[in-house]
């Protein structure tokens, strides 16, 4: 497709949307604006956008597609300011915010001015922020929730989906209320729990100095999302306040249930509690991104000698297997760390496993 695409908020999500649009629609012109000049400058320098502008008005008035990827509170403010501008007649406006009820309300002015606003939420992301973390494949296989109101023509929804086809995401239409309930359960509330687990560990660490050093493995996995942007999560909690308060009550009931399991100390009941959770989680689709992202991790039990990491990455490079991340996971002191190599696809991970097996006798296992 041709036209000018204006991205407001050039961070992780805005940048990733820009890259995925440009990948498919090479004749389009990607224009970026960020309230933080440094992010805008970086976005241009990294080639995430073709041009930057110095105000929302400047970018919006010539745009064919406007995508707002700022924190949700700011998104509301920006939406309220757009009707005062001289927008193109057939411009399509959408956003990427993690909440929808409040945002759709804030877009009421656009309905009155006869503009098309379609709420959007690509359901994949990361705890990392900023345009430097943006990537074109971020939304591959993820769900992309849309919340068009009844007056929005089907043709406009189809046009937006054509613009966003390079995300390779799967579009689903829901109402703003449904959206906020669904994401409350599988995204927003888990972020509260992750943050609260970290607070609990921090409190205990005041008297138990070993806690930070031991907080590895499972604790790191379950609390990864507590490293997300506090600004983004502050705004999400304020927008989805009612749903989250009700989920918190359900959670308190659930914790009472756990308390009574512990008090009764009945082996069978405790076993069933974990078994039920394991069964439901194991049946969740694994290959799609979303609340539980697809991991293509390979764990390699490496002996401790200098150069072992470059040796392994050298084997992989020779076979042109690209890796997305590499880290050492140390769960116990005085025991060799495990090398964790992450891949973008399952195929890359399987090829890497064969490659390492051909060159070494290191034990390997895949992350589930
Ligand atoms: N991070 C995720 O996992 C994820 C996933 C899906 C959707 N979202 C949603 O996408 C939006 C962006 O999140 P992100 O992760 O890209 O955050 P980010 O911090 O990486 O980027 C947000 C950018 O918006 C800019 N910004 C803030 N106020 C602005 C304003 N008034 N005008 C222009 N720019 C402004 C910031 O400077 C920043 O560069 C949020 O609404 C978030 O809820 C996030
Ligand atoms: O993978 C992560 O770090 C995320 O938290 C991504 C995540 C999620 O909860 O699934 C976070 C918020 C977004 O609205 C959508 C995706």
Would you give an account of this structure?
It is a single chain. This protein is an alpha/beta fold. The chain folds into 3 domains: 4-174, Rossmann fold (3-Layer(aba) Sandwich); 179-282, Orthogonal Bundle (6-phosphogluconate dehydrogenase C-terminal fold), CATH 1.10.3660; 297-366, ACT domain (Alpha-Beta Plaits, 2-Layer Sandwich). The chain is 47% helix and 15% strand. The protein is built from 15 helices and 12 strands. An 8-stranded mixed β-sheet has the order 3-2-1-4-5-6-7-8, with helices on both faces. It has a 4-stranded antiparallel β-sheet with strand order 10-11-9-12, covered by helices on one side. Helix 8 (176-205) crosses helix 12. The chain is globular. Residues 290-294 and 331-335 have low confidence and may be disordered. The structure holds nicotinamide-adenine-dinucleotide and prephenic acid. The site of nicotinamide-adenine-dinucleotide has 31 residues, from helix 1, helix 4, strand 6 and helix 11.
Features:
single chain, 368 residues, alpha/beta, Rossmann fold, 6-phosphogluconate dehydrogenase C-terminal fold, Alpha-Beta Plaits, 3 domains, 8-stranded mixed beta sheet, 4-stranded antiparallel beta sheet, 12 strands, binds nicotinamide-adenine-dinucleotide, binds prephenic acid
The main sheet orders its strands as 3-2-1-4-5-6-7-8
SSE-based structural type: alpha/beta
Main beta sheet strand tally, sense and closure: 8 strands, mixed
Kindly state the percentage of residues in helix. 40-55%
Mean pLDDT: 92
Radius of gyration: 23 Å
Number of domains: 3
Low-confidence parts? 290-294, 331-335
Strands, total number: 12
Percent of sequence in beta strands: 5-15%
Annotated CATH topology of the largest domain: Rossmann fold
CATH architecture of the largest domain: 3-Layer(aba) Sandwich
- What sort of overall outline do the alpha carbons produce when their principal axes are compared? globular
Distinct small molecules bound, one entry per kind = nicotinamide-adenine-dinucleotide, prephenic acid
CATH superfamily of the largest domain: NAD(P)-binding Rossmann-like Domain
Order of helices and strands: EHEHEHEHEHHEEHEHHHHHHEHEEHE
Report the CATH C-level class of the largest domain. Answer: Alpha Beta
């Amino acid at each position: 497709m041709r036209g000018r695409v204006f991205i407001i908020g050039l961070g992780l999500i805005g940048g990733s949307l820009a890259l995925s649009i440009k990948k498919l629609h090479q004749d389009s012109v990607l224009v970026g604006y960020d309230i933080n000049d440094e992010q805008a400058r970086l976005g241009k320098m990294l080639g995430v956008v073709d041009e930057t502008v110095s105000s929302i008005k400047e970018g919006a008035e010539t745009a064919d597609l406007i995508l707002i990827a700022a924190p949700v509170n700011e998104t509301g403010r920006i939406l309220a300011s757009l009707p005062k501008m001289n927008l193109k007649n057939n411009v399509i406006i959408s956003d990427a915010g993690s909440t929808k009820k409040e945002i759709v309300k804030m877009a009421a002015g656009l309905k009155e001015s006869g503009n098309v606003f379609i709420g959007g939420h690509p359901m994949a992301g990361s705890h990392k922020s900023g345009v430097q973390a943006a990537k074109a494949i971020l939304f591959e296989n993820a769900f992309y929730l849309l919340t068009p109101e009844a007056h929005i023509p089907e043709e406009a929804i189809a046009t937006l989906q054509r613009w966003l086809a390079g995300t390779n995401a799967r579009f689903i239409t829901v109402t703003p209320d449904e959206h906020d309930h669904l994401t409350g359960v599988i995204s927003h509330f888990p972020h509260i729990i992750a943050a609260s687990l970290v607070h609990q560990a921090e409190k205990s660490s005041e008297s138990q100095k070993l806690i930070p050093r031991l907080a590895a493995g499972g604790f790191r996995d379950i609390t990864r999302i507590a490293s997300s942007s506090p600004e983004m999560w502050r705004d999400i909690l304020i927008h989805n306040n009612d749903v989250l308060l009700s989920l918190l009550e359900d959670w308190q009931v659930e914790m009472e249930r756990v308390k009574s399991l512990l008090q009764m100390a009945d082996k069978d009941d405790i076993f069933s509690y974990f078994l039920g959770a394991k069964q439901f989680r194991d049946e969740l689709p694994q290959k799609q991104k979303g609340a539980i992202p697809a991991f293509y991790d390979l764990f390699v039990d490496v002996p401790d000698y200098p150069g072992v990491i470059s040796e392994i990455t050298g084997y992989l490079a020779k076979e042109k297997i690209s890796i997305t991340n590499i880290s050492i996971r140390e769960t116990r002191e005085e025991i060799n760390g495990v090398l964790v190599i992450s891949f973008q696809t399952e195929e890359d991970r399987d090829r890497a496993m064969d490659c390492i097996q051909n060159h070494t006798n290191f034990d390997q296992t895949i992350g589930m």
